[in-house]
Design brief:
With 498 residues, the protein is α/β, with parallel strands linked by helices. Helices cover 35% and strands 16% of the residues. The chain is built from 16 helices and 22 strands. It starts with 5 loop residues before the first strand and ends in a 9-residue tail after the last helix.
């Protein structure tokens, strides 16, 4: 591949070109089902366009499948700019056969598999956008029917992709792309809606339960008042828990003189005589005619709107995928934009960590993933702790006193005292534990738990890293061990930080 790859009107960034090179190498090595994982805002649609461009140069037939009309229209726009001829297989669009077909999964499955009213598009390469959704049964029917083709899945969150996919290629991380291509985030302290006793379905609360807990006058008032104080002059998107909740929030913004629009799955792509379409609403937000969009689902996945400056999370979720996809809308770089604002009313930041945190994804079946997440939560390094007295935030310290003001609290989720009309900004403090320190901590813990001594820990460290531990490393024993155990087994080492 040439040093600089140009596709139509744009030139691919170096990390995008490197990702394509890695995909090619994996295919050359015999892999046929590969996922490209990269953060929201990476430019995966541009990468898909480049892959199609290169495949077309080799006379390959390509099928690109997405599960939403919004994603298909975005890819259609990119291919049109690159002057790549293609056809769209999607309800409401005229379809004629082409070597390059982009389609919604729903229309492809309905017309080509259920009704058999349309011949299946031929494909040497199948590209799946938002591939974390491709574990659904109808998706699997389609992918397995094209088993002879190569498959490339694109997603920021391949958390539930075990079974069909063979390898994950990491195209980049938030750390790699910030601040050159993505902006950092600012988070305002949430108060957590009480979801105890709410009905669940699978790994998340049911939509009706979430909407019932959120759709109250009190929460709506807090959403508006906090948004007005924190992000009153910024182009914003509100992620609601359900359609009626979103409509309710939209009416509150409009009653207070803020130009707001509601978007959901029933909102048409283009305006009709009786209803505004998505294009008009999204363009209104970009141009300043609309200041707030309240939505359910539409702006959560695959929505490319870098001009959005603030996002209000007016929902609670137990899904890491949903959380990462939602907050990922806010960190695309745009003109003078310096950061993305996250205003969280559902305790999601407390549950999953900082919005721009990079996660290690593995190709595991769903049941295995859920077990692994539970184990990680039980053994993970403590996340940010928050003092309800002075609002100081620090990493670690699940129990004990605030290091800033001395206030004593026990961390059991977000304390009730945080249910406040005014949310306070959370300042993320970077962990003092680097990779070498983490390795040393682990070796100390293993040695202590197996009745070893400091020499055992040193030997383990050398075995794992190839180096002997430096004198600059801290001697820290995890909180899972009691002080008396540490004193008894390794008297030289004390729990805590120096």
């Amino acid at each position: 591949m040439p040093t600089t790859l140009e596709v139509g009107a744009w030139t691919l960034r170096q990390h995008q070109q490197d990702a394509i090179s890695d995909l090619r190498a994996a295919m050359a090595g015999g892999r046929k089902h590969i996922i490209l994982q990269a953060p929201c805002g990476y430019g995966k649609t541009v990468v898909a366009s480049a892959i199609i461009y290169l495949a077309r140069a080799k006379d390959m037939k390509v099928l690109c499948v997405a599960d939403s009309r919004q994603l298909v229209y975005q890819l259609h726009e990119k291919l049109t700019l690159a002057e790549i001829p293609h056809s769209m297989l999607m309800a409401g669009e005229e379809y004629s056969y082409s070597d390059i077909t982009i389609c919604t999964k729903q229309t492809l499955f309905s017309r080509c598999y259920q009704r058999e009213s349309t011949p299946k598009p031929a494909a040497d390469l199948v590209i799946v956008d938002e591939a974390h959704k491709a574990t659904a049964n109808d998706y699997q029917v389609i992918l397995k029917d094209y088993r002879q083709a190569h498959h490339i899945g694109l997603t920021a969150t391949p958390e539930e992709c075990g079974g069909f996919w063979e390898e994950i290629i990491v195209g980049g991380t938030y750390g790699d792309l910030t601040p050159e291509f993505l902006v950092p985030c600012r988070v305002y302290m949430p108060w957590e809606v009480d979801m105890r006793g709410a009905a669940t379905s699978g790994r998340d609360w049911t939509k009706s339960a979430v909407e019932e807990r959120h759709n109250t006058t009190k929460l709506v008032g807090d959403v508006y008042s906090n948004w007005k104080r924190i992000a009153g002059d910024k182009k914003s998107v509100v992620f609601a828990s359900g359609v009626s909740h979103s409509l309710h929030l939209c009416s509150v913004f409009n009653k207070n003189g803020v130009s707001a629009e509601h978007v959901d799955a029933e909102t048409p792509q283009r305006s009709t005589s009786s209803r505004k379409g998505r294009e008009e609403i999204f363009n209104g937000l970009r141009d300043g005619d609309v200041q707030v969009i309240c939505n359910v689902g539409v702006c959560r996945v695959g929505w490319d709107a870098p001009w959005v400056e603030a996002g209000v999370l007016a929902f609670s979720t137990k899904s890491l995928v949903q959380y990462v996809q939602t907050t990922g809308r806010l960190f695309r770089r745009f003109q003078e934009k310096t950061h993305g604002l996250v205003i969280d009313h559902g305790g999601n930041v407390a549950r999953f960590g900082w919005p721009t945190e990079d996660h290690d994804y593995e190709l595991k079946p769903r049941v295995t993933i859920e077990k692994r997440i539970k184990e990680r939560q039980e053994n993970q390094e403590p996340r940010e702790s928050h003092c309800p007295q002075c609002s100081y935030v620090w990493v670690g310290g699940r129990r004990g006193d605030c290091p800033m003001c001395g206030h004593h609290h026990v961390r059991t989720g977000w304390p009730e005292s945080l249910v406040d009309a005014e949310l306070k900004e959370v300042v993320r403090k970077q962990s003092w534990r680097g990779e070498e320190q983490k390795a040393w901590d682990k070796c100390l813990g293993i040695a202590a738990n197996t009745g070893g001594n400091p020499a055992t820990a040193r030997a383990l460290y050398h075995q794992k890293t190839g180096f002997w531990p430096q004198a600059s490393l801290h001697n820290y024993i995890p909180h899972s061990m009691g002080r008396h155990e540490v004193d008894r087994i390794m008297s030289k080492y004390r729990r805590g930080r120096r």
